[in-house]
User: Fold this.
Amino acid sequence: MARAVTPRRRLINTILAWSIGLLIFFPILWTILTSFKPEGQAIADPPLFLFFDWTLENYAIVQERSNYARYLTNSIIISVGSTLLGILVAVPAAWSMAFVPSKRTKNILMWMLSTKMLPAVGVLYPIYILFIKMSLLDSRLGLVIVIMLINLPIIIWMLYTYFKEIPAPILEAARMDGASLRNEILYVLTPMAIPGIASTILLNIILAWNEAFWTLNLTAAKAGPLTAFIASYSSPEGLFFAKLSAASTMAIAPILILGWFSQKQLVRGLTFGAVK
Amino acid sequence: MGRIVLDNVTKSFGNAQVIPPLQLTIEDGEFAVFVGPSGCGKSTLLRLIAGLEDVTSGKIEIDGKDVSGLAPAKRGLAMVFQSYALYPHMTVRKNIAFPLKMAGLARAEIKKRVDNAAAVLNLTDYLDRRPGQLSGGQRQRVAIGRAIVREPAAFLFDEPLSNLDAALRVGMRLEISELHERLKSTMIYVTHDQVEAMTMADKIVVLQAGVIEQVGSPLELYRAPRNTFVAGFIGSPKMNLIDGPEATKRDAHTIGIRPEHIAVSSDSGSWKGKVNVSEHLGSDTFFHVQGTGLADSLTVRADGEVSFRHGDDIYLTPREEHIHRFDAKGLRIA
Assistant:
């Protein structure tokens, strides 16, 4: 039975929801505001909220000092590339786990997830050595591969969950209709799983975009994405909060815009299958 | 062509053998119905023929060719599923065309065949809709359309009508029978509904726990059930099975008499009992009679409208020539 929601209760809920939302968003908001402050006011105590001397000089300086476009390009290539490569590997993997599970499928899924429980720094050394031996250090290809592998468990898990929702008889019908395995996945499974695949892609682009550990450790000048761009404004030359904030804002803006436009798809995808 | 032979086929899931060695031949053009209670292995058997499950041992032949190791796609069979299993993201046209597309037919030929099938199945006006916009009966017709365009060696139906409401079910039953008359292809039809089996089949295969209890035409099964299981399963309402003195008197362990083979009277007859529940269908009336001392309850059918009330005395007289006799193992005594 539906419970009656009184106007008062609704008002309280709305205020509560907005408060939590603003609390979560506040650090981002603060970063954006700081990026428009002169360096002196950025560290003012007590902090200035809205009444400061608005300026664009930080953006101008950041733009002048480093090549934003190159970092942006690297970010796009690495996040999109690693995600698409991951999907290519994960679709057949998730298909087999969802539709022809073996006794150990559950264990394999858990084992894959357990790799995410290991602190990344634990495998930094071997991967670093591998990268040197394979001449992948500071290359986009190297980062695409390593970030794809880092996120692969999540991609497979998400796709597995979506695929489980697809009724097996439909795939069997495709088999009876003469579809090869490739055609079954291409013409029947994938189109039916599009909403799930789309939200998996979106989420993984965001994860890959924000990945900092591997990008900072495995790149130098050439292949660095926007995370490296932000990092270059941190410590060595002392703390320039306003410029750091401007760099951060520039780095997160594209993904924030992508997230904003795709939020419907993201929410739908993430709650897909939660209620039958 | 479509002669299907199952030769010593078995199927096990892990350690559990669901189909013990089984022998069955379905002739070309035959309408065979697998019938049995749920869990009797009839769907598994169909899936083995389809290739959706692998046989554990034995072989399956279609037109003399061993297909046991072949993928479903290579067996030349078409299947209609209980849940219809239409492709929800494709229009009706694309659904029906899918097997032809997979077979690599030319576009003009695909269009011709799809239009033909749609005309036969009254789907022409719905070709551009998606399955979600169709009623249950229409969806089932699309599933049948998808099966017939391929001109398969045989059609497999897995309880295709059980998701439809009663009225629609009778209509679709007729349509499938007509389709069989027209196409003359082999059809294998799985159902738990003995009425569907009786009305549609050339040959009924009664299964219980993976074992074939009897194979025969509907009337053979009705007239001479091989054992008490088949006797109780075929015919509606169920045959009355009676143990004890009445059976011994006729040199049997159990005797069976169908509700329609018992005469009803209010003043005289062989057995006396009291009416418990009466079901008036207009054309027939069924009485559930208790207190005869023969079985917990006997079911009797009377023609037309016959009035007995709850608690009334009723006299029953079985027609001797229609009494079936079974031995202690439940097997028919000739």
Notes: Chain B touches chain A at residues 50-52, 71-73, 77-79, 81-83, 85-89, 98-99, 102-103, 146, 150 (CB under 8 Å). Chain B has two domains: 4-230, 240-326. The radius of gyration of chain B is 23 Å. Residues 118 and 124 of chain B are 5 Å apart (CA to CA).
